[in-house]
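seq/struct pair 1
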Amino acid sequence: HLIRMKISSKFQAAPSATGGTTSSSSTVYRRKKFMVMLLDRSGSMSGDWPTVVDSVERVLTRDLLSDIDTVVRLVVWAIDATEVPIPRDASGMADIGALMRDLRGVYRPTNQSTYFRSAFRQAGDLVEQAFESGGELCGVSKECVDVQLLVFTDGCDTSMGTAKQSRESAKTHFVSMKERFKDIIGVSSVFIY
């Protein structure tokens, strides 16, 4: 069974100069979205991979990828996590067809184990880098950014021995990643679906 986890942060209105929050009748802040999609490409995902790729294709629309207020990062992982570049066509637009071909070919599942720590570490690194100098969100107030993490996995951390150890390991890494996100940007809610 394919498990999709979504971690989403929602923030209050941006703070005003007087210490309160802005109202809808005063300054309007453009919210930014930073989305990281983590795709488990371990051996156990081979049968579910077409579903994963189809789901990614439904989420990554041309409108989403051309939205100036949205940053999208795509990561595949088994033992190691690798960021997947989103190809661009001659006009500079995201080439979704090329990305889907890459996911079905170059980035298809391997015969490796699943190691959740590498995926969650990569996601945290990408969020931190976005706020650093030269990052896509450099200079943007963290209160004005929604961060979403979508994880496509079967939920088995096969770097562990038994099924029980696997579930416990996945849970431990998930909780650890959640705490790291709180440290980075103050994640306030977690949704798993």
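seq/struct pair 2
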Amino acid sequence: LGDVYKRQTLQRLGVVLPSGHERFRESLVIPDIDETGFCHQIAALPLSQRGVTQDLDYVSLSDPRFFNEGVLSHADSVILCADPLDSLILRSAGLTNVIALAGLRAFELDHLYALEAYGVNAVCFAVGQHQHYDAVLIAQALESIDIDCSCMAIDTNIRVSVNRYGHDYLRVAYQQAGSFSANVMVSGWRNVE
């Protein structure tokens, strides 16, 4: 009965497909597990013999929250990534105050309330050029509750940048992060040299 219940639960959550196959087969799976051991969400990066084949896939098992939300309890400023794989890359570069979403368009009021409730006063966006518009929209919401926003100048995206320039590039980009006003669409990105 235990195994049947577990499989039914996993099917209800979308982790196991009705056919019985695993949704995240042959994928790098990144669970978001809190301090009590509860898994809130799962991100998976499909892999093949040629490497990464597509974008991350997500399953949310609870109310909206950030990946690595535990960071909020001890950080008054955070780096916000669009996905948990980018946050892992930033953490491997030595940046520990990193949280992530399941894509920037997954940002909801619950995320805004969490940042406010934990007393976060600054958010630095670590996003690629193609995500700038979404970052500006989130920054508008954050600045409306007096959370300062800045943006790292990332070349293309974090994965490409770290492969091209190494972890030092990400540390320098964070140190040189520039403020941007959410009221004015910033047309270009600064290059980190």
